[in-house]
């Protein structure tokens, strides 16, 4: 069993990534992503890995893309602002069927649409996981690398300032110097110039010298892969007290932990409230959300934004129950997402207003 230590979230996630086999990491400093980049820079040389402080987010995602084609477990990330610059590459990496883990250490919760819908071109989706605290971030970081390899797709871990800067006692897995074996599709340069070199491209795979690309066939195969992920990835959700709830409150990420605790206190005070916290944001756990909300009179969605996940909650419930948005933007003076309204008394008040 791994040792239990008091550790900051960004370091815990970095250690979990290296323990999962990550051997290449790159990014450009931008708080609250900077701390994750710093810890990866300290850890990777110890296992013969590489961490690059790129010139910008554009170079970072390009470096990660190149590393991913070699079959080594690679990762990159930023805040939502930096990830805006990566969107074109993320869409093409997805259609090139390459595994990559992307850390979005967001400022607040304004990036839900960016994370789950993407801003790149074409018809693509990739997996999104949203931990609520440091122990869950350790677990989901390791899961992200496993899923990226299994599905050959980018997997995004959606965090925030709270997650990166909170200290918690967690069991961090030991780091082994041996990296996972390379997959058979990996490019290693051994066939370069032979006329039979493998090609990894968003336009399709193939062998050098073959006649062009069949884009229609490739895009059809990509669509089939999206459908396979949508039905094959196990949707994760944390739910409680929904069986007799008059009101079910939906929230995700760090804010979801505040909402869960507020609901627990309101239950102790005799109020019939329940909670649902989607953990996989794509594929969204629609069936579980629908089931959890089916016996309630109303669903309330609490987010630190103008209302984004609430759209997925409404789609999941399919009009069977009213869905009300009770969240809103909440910002510190630096805009890092440390919301002054993100506290149990204020959240409880909004829940009670929705309940009555």
The helix count comes to 12
Unreliable stretches (pLDDT < 50, length at least 5) are none
CATH architectural type of the largest domain = 3-Layer(aba) Sandwich
Question: Count of DSSP E strands?
Answer: 16
Mind telling me the C-alpha Rg?
21 Å
Proportion of residues in β-strands: 15-25%
Count of distinct structural domains: 2
CATH topology of the largest domain: Rossmann fold
Brief overview:
With 356 residues, this protein is of the alpha/beta class. It is 40% helix and 19% strand. Helix 11 links the parallel strand 15 and strand 16.
Description:
It is a single chain. The protein is 40% helix and 19% strand. A seven-stranded mixed sheet has the order 3-2-4-5-7-6-14, with helices on both faces. The protein has a five-stranded mixed sheet with strand order 11-13-12-15-16, with helices on both faces. A two-stranded antiparallel sheet has the order 1-8. The chain contains twelve helices and 16 strands. Helix 3 packs parallel to helix 4, helix 9 packs across helix 12 and helix 10 crosses helix 11. The chain has two domains: 170 residues, Rossmann fold, CATH 3.40.50.970; 119 residues, Rossmann fold. The chain has 356 residues and is of the alpha/beta class. It is globular. Helix 4 links the parallel strand 4 and strand 5. The model has no long low-confidence stretch (mean pLDDT 93). The longest helix is centred in the middle third of the chain and has 18 residues.
